[in-house]
Amino acid sequence: MPTMADVARCAGVSVATVSHVLNDTRPVLPHTRQAVLDAIDELGYTPNTLARSLVTSRTRSIGLAVSAIANPYFTEILQGVEAEVLEHGYSLLIADPHDDPAHERKVVQLLHERRVDGMIVAPSADPGELLAYLGRHAVPTVLLDRVVDAAPPFDQVCAENTAPMSELVAHLAVLGHRRIGLVAGLRGLSTSGERVAGYRGGLAAAGLPYDERLVVHGDSASAGAERATAALLALPEPPTALVTANNAMTIGALRALRDHGLAVPGDIALCCFDDFAWADLFSPRLTAIAQPSKEIGARAVRVLLDRLADPDRPARTVRLPCALVHRTSCGCPEEAVVSG
Predict the structure, then answer these.
(1) Cis check: omega of the bond before 27, within 30 degrees of 0
(2) Which of 55, 112, 217, 236 is least enclosed by beta carbons within 10 angstroms?
């Protein structure tokens, strides 16, 4: 098995130079770096990750705690995280906190005990214990998707929520809807609160009153949204249009509409916050707000690497723009969508 000394002889450099190339511990001239990389490739040299971590106090690994299994949105974020982590020569350890505060705290501690260099975490609706642990142990961390107020503050990466939701509601109002229902997400999540605020802002911009009876919480899950949608449909004056605040709740709302024998958009318009891979395959095709989920994941990695490189830099919150994907479930004819 080739050693670091073999690489150094092949590249015509010192062992120290090979070490600097492998560990990024000192700048190396581009042509020298390339010679070392070519020697590594030629010899098939594999660095001893454990030995390197003992020297550098770094494992070149990142922990990711998101509920990827239960939420397709986080699955796409995971793809963005993984690609960016590998691009920078890191490995990825993944844990699913199940959006449960107690379990969240446990899995983050387990990742920390694996000596990851930093973490990317999508916090639950009650992240007090999580934040206390991360702060107490000074774990370099980027909070993902859901923003929190904490002291000291953390780096955060998320999508814009308020303005895109306002745009969606305003679009339905332009189509003539005056009773627009919202199936909101789990209480306590910043995404839920911001999308409710956007809903209210969209109503206000259209000159429509806010009716609290038209806002129900589906707890960010399909089953919860199914119950919430049924409650809206049971109102003496049910909504003529419905907005769901994430992709899982869209599925639950569609089930409830089907069970009530309602057609979209003939009987009720439907729009959703969170586009997803098969939204264009429904009939009618679903009008949706698309979040840049893969870029959110990739940006979170870059923000974390900046934190690792400069631990004392001020914390920052990065928000990425969303896009309205105009299809036909809102009630617009196909030709209008194509021409628009």
Answers:
(1) no
(2) 236
- Would you tell me how many other CB atoms lie within 10 Å of the CB of residue 167? 17
At 180, which amino acid appears? Answer: I
Render pLDDT for 283-304 as a digit per residue (tens, 0 to 9).
789 999 999 999 999 999 999 9
Q: At what angle do helices 222-233 and 247-259 cross, to 10 degrees?
A: 50
Q: What tokens appear for 41 in the block?
A: 């490739």
Whether the predicted pLDDT of 52 surpasses 70: no
Q: Which structure tokens are listed for 223?
A: 């089953």
pLDDT at residue 245, rounded to an integer: 95
* C-beta of residue 166 within 8 angstroms of C-beta of residue 201: yes
- For 302, other C-beta atoms within 10 Å of its C-beta total 15
Q: Is the pTM of this model over 0.85?
A: no
Residue % of the chain over a pLDDT of 90: 69
Residue 26: exposure state from Cβ atoms within 10 A (0-12, 13-18, ≥19): exposed
Q: Structure tokens of 68?
A: 């990827």
Residue-wise pLDDT for 220-261, tens only, equals 999 999 999 999 999 999 999 999 999 899 999 999 999 999
